[in-house]
Amino acid sequence: MNEQALVDCLTCVLCPVSCELEVRKGMSGDLEVKGNQCDKGIPFAVEEVLRPMRNLATSVPVRGTSARMVSLRLSRPVPREMIFPILAEIEKLRPEAPVRRGQGLLANVLGTGADVIATRTIPVLSSCQPKKSHSMPTRRKA
Amino acid sequence: MKAPERIETCDVAVIGGGPAGLAAALGARRAGAREVLLIEREKALGGILNQCIHDGFGLFLYQETISGPEYAERLIEDVAREPIKVETGAMVLDLSPDRLLRVDSRAGYRLIRAGAVVLAMGCRERTRDMVGIPGTRPAGVLTAGSAQNLVNLQNLRIGHSAVILGSGDIGLIMARRLVLEGVTVKGVFEILPWASGLERNVRQCLMDFAIPLELRSTVVEIRGRDRVESVVVARVDDAFAPVAGTERVIPCDTLLLSVGLIPENELSKRAGVELSPLTGGAVVDETLMTSVAGVFSCGNVLHIHDVADWASFEGLAAGERAARYAGGERATGASVRISAGTNVRYALPQLVTAGREGVEWSFRVARPLRDASVEVRGKSSGRVYARRKYPRLLPSELQKINVRTAVEEDIEVGCHE
User: What pTM did the predictor assign?
Assistant: First the structure.
């Protein structure tokens, strides 16, 4: 009966109304969105089906501290399929303390236009006590 | 232990430095409290926000989506700009009904008398013992939040292949986090017929990575001697009892539990604060004051929030009210009781001063509802004080309803499809 193939059912997350959207593909190949109570729902659903955008959060160790981690994210969402390639780039990062919140650690990562930014401030003198003494200068006994 | 002779004083003491407590300290200052003391058990302020490195915070407080650590730092910077006395690495051991705090601090054991107290201790996770999973007791069984701490803050690998029991938000977030860290996530198993976490997390954390979510199913056995070797999952019937013959063995070395959060009210109990069996938190009035005069509650220690921003807004309000109490303001008049009606798990505040206008209630529904109408109705008169329609209501989402008119009788918050 229904000549339009159902592509996806999703809930709009742009606001708390949480419209339940249905995306169908018409005969012409165009996507048709139903269930949206406002205009924002259509581009949201189309993007979510054709090219979902996501942010990415992870953390990396900071040099010059005793194994303290700095959390980071992207300055803006990237196409979902870029998550793992970007992650591989981030894995190589070992920023030096101090790290400032909002500091760019990797600009325009893999040409996506998004920067990798620190989401936490890590001062040089970490309040964290070193676990082993090797990071401390050893003092000779007189 | 030798008792200190001197009793220190402050106007408002806030216990807990997470999203609610930080905001409460700010709220107390805004309402004119001179001496505000913020006490935090950990070495740093921020609470659980520090390990919540994913984004989605701040949409309501800062009108943009940021990560947990960023959200925490902004609040901490606001606190640092005020003459608020912050004590980290300090634990409140006891709270008396007359607001005497016994504190184990960096400077030793101290006594502090507060004009008003704001409880903002947050919550903790339900453990394996609390859900009673049979089997051996190997390493590799963790709550989702402790896994989050180990992975995000301590850079530890918690295992190679994991099963997640429960679909709470932290479990969903950790499913994605583990995949990004190279851990195979075999599936998320939820005993209820619906996901406990937010829908956005089901989509972005599970569907994006093709992690199966199995509803109406649970872990019935943990196997393994030193380390988890496998778990047995099974479907459950309507009474949540495992259905014989549906058992499946899933090889894995890690089981994460995301099976609910419990407000951490040990201190509240010591002070004699009346707790609600529905929320696990204090019974409060519209000023967020508990049954103990001058003791206020906010954030996850009051009731479990799904969004940190709301915990902060509640903290701001509790801090302001606490400051006003410390300044001598007292509520007058009898109070009316609010109860949860049809399809509503709880409504908060549970008490309101009779005649008070413009009270806002937080509530949570007991099951997913469509085209629902929420009514605030007088118990004796049957009068409808407020009614609001919702296209959809989910137990995972805390909702609010405002009542403009003065409430003069006991009322019930109910919901019908």
Answer: 0.90
